[in-house]
Amino acid sequence: MLPIALERFxxxxxxxxxxxxxxxxxPRIGLAMSDVLERVGYECEFRRDQTxxxxxxxxxxxxxEAREVxxxxxxxxxxxxxxxxxxxxxxxxxxxxxxxxxxxxxxxxKAASELGTRVYEFTxxxxxxxxxxxxxxxxxxxxxxxxxCHALRELGIKSAPRRxxxxxxxxxxxxxxxxxxxCGFGGTFSVKLSELSSDMLNGKIQSIVATGASxxxxxxxxCLMHIEGGLRRRGLPVRTLHLxxxxxxx
Amino acid sequence: xPDREQVLSNVRSxxxxxxxxxxxxxxxxxxVVPQWSREERIRRFxxxxxxxxxVAPSAxxxxxxxxxxxxxxxxxxxxxxxxxxLGLVNLPDVRVNVDDPHELRVLCAVAGAxxxxxxxxxxxxxxxxxxASNEEERLISLLPPRHVAVLPAHxxxxxxxxxxxxxxxxxxxxxSLVLIGGPSRTGDIEMSLTLGVHGPREVYVVIx
Amino acid sequence: MSTAFxxxxxxxxxxxxxxxxxxxxxxxxxxxxxxxxxxxxxxEYQELRDQAHHIKRHTIDHLDYYLxxxxxxxxxxxGHVVWCxxxxxxxxxxxxxxxxxxxxxxxxxxxxxxxxxxxxxxxxKNGIEPVETDLGEYIQQLARERPYHIVAPALHKTRGDVAxxxxxxxGVERNEEPEELTQVARRVxxxxxxxADMGISGANFVVAESGAVVLVENEGNIRMTTSAxxxxxxxxxxEKLIPRATDLAxxxxxxxxxxSGQPITSYTSFLSGPRRxxxxxxxxxxxxxxxxNGRTRVLADKEKRQTLYCIRCGACSNVCPVYRRIGGHSxxxxxxxxxxxxxxxxxxxxxxxxxxxFASSLCGxxxxxxxxxxxxxxxxxxxxxxxxxxxxRENRWLPExxxxxxxxxxxxxxxxxxxAGFFAQAFLSGQDDHSWVRTGPALLAPWTATRDxxxxxxxxxxxxxxxxxxxxxxxxxxxxxxxxxxA
Lengths: 250, 208, 487
Fold this sequence. Notes:
The complex is a heterotrimer of chains A (250), B (208) and C (487). With 250 residues, chain A is an alpha/beta fold.
């Protein structure tokens, strides 16, 4: 018999954690993600009991409330083989920050660390577990890619999305200047210090527009929501898309 | 409570440590000395050092180079043995053996050039290492607008790591060790690079 | 309700000229830094950061031992150690030293801790003239401003600003060339150096085993300050210690590169006490001030103790999208940028400027460049937690707290969550046609002031998933209604 960890790793069953934001605002992203995963041979399940990873409270300083929600998350996904998330930020919350939340509860901390090894940001899963760089997508546009901060710095995701984009038929990737600079979202930061957040967004939008791309691609619905909000306000004809949506298109 | 006791007792209670409790050994020093030939060390020094480097095949050529660089300047020289052996301190307009602190200061302040030895040169990053001593005064390499340093090739070390391997505690040797990476410089006004702020604008290193 | 800090942010964001100056300068620093830490140039960079972190952690965790070691070593070489519990003790110590040696003119090199204790004001009040000698710091002193950036104090000033200042304060003819301005400062300061009775420096590192201070610079003013006058006073925070000189092989490789993008700066001085027998130059007397001033409070917090590992390179400010927009003077306290955002609340108390740790998108750029691997984003999160705990203790009905309590309650009840989304959608879909919101209500207003906000999806992912998975098709009524309408 295979040890349980290995058995889980070899499993082709994946559990989607679509994040609260995708669930309620951008379901197309979750559907695109499941399409791509199924296309490359994974069987997707969606646990209806899922809600949020707890990050909004955690980043706002309400650790107790975040902990309750994190504990609930652990219970919901306890026995899932792979947990796939269309967000670098939420993945990192689960993988890295859950352990901090439970520093006084060794049992929960152990469970969180163990579960953390089964949580993957979507492109991370495709390239490192499924070992796939080409999902047979076609998207005939000039695009630019925004590195979202937590995917980049907390999960070290830099080349995976680019490799995937490279293999999309008809797509041309134009890197923007200062590609690693934050778009200014930052959760409640965007309303608490909205002036500062808007100024950061302004810089990001200038970089996007300067590439001449028709779409901006990202890994986090939150950053994309922020960027799209700014683009729309300015009446700029640039589309925002999650990478899963690009990969799902043929 | 006197400040000493107050600070120490605050530190101890913050750390949960007792009076006189020893510390375990610190993490081992990270000293990795590359194996570079003498030529390689000199080549890298010349490339990395931000002043001008002259590799002199002979003492005569070194003397000519130094003579040219200090020509027309009042020069103050240190009593470095190597400088004396090469006869560099006998070049025209060179003052040496000034032992009065006040006079030395004034001479350094008015001199056009300072001529010194160097304890070591370091290939990577390019720098001179100069220990102050009764033969090597601090101000000669600092006050005059040009600084010429002369040293033999065998004193070119590979790296900072090698410097600290041969000199694990500079305090045992001198009250002052200075590493000189090039001319005095600043970027404090609009990040525009300006040389010769308080120290020399030109630095020449002669390796023999 | 906006705090003083938020007002500063507002003013800074409106100053476009200033923003351009800061962006240009910090970009230069960052580009130069990247050039010299690139894997092909410095393959051991990450290893050096780890080692630096470990050394700092070890030293800070056994700080009492190293403080006593350095004290004994300095004294054994004829130097003096003065312990200072707070700012007042530190300035009094400097004044007492000046009086003892009848010093009237003190040249100073850049030192953040001397800014922190407001040393210059105190010296002036006591008839001792302090002269800053780092060019940027000298400019700031003439302008009577505090440093704008840890490494480049006058980073925000243009050449025109400096030229005007020199005309006004030094009575020289106006010239905007940085080269010429630098020469003016050289001439003025050269006289000060040679006449000064006392040199006051900071310390980049204090080497315990050697009883030495290490000072890193480019201009030569620190060498002047520490070599020309009779007295050298080095003012150091107690966290500046490292165990051995050999540890510098790690720290010197990181400091210049991280701070100004230089493999090594023009001058690195390793100074261990007064002039020795036979040496002609160098001070007669050497004093090392070990300053606490709030540091032991930080030390007592095991979680945030790592804030004290900072070697003041300024790299975090250069990459910080917040610092780059609001600049150094917007920050309360002596230390600006991300390190200031975690240091100031710990020094001054959490209630002092509670917005400070929240003024970050938690992008993590600071932590990525920190040469001693201080986890700045995690420190920000811990401070946010502590601040909210404190506020909740003071005000049991804190609205934000109540909101998150409610949120947590819903997030643990998936059916409630589902129906909340469902009803919100049903309510909103009656009002508009799912276009993005341009004018948001109360809480959303700050967002929609500059950005559109997305509408709830007509059907949530869970609804769509259900519909897709089961032929029976659990389609909620309002969605079904909508489908009919669309058809």
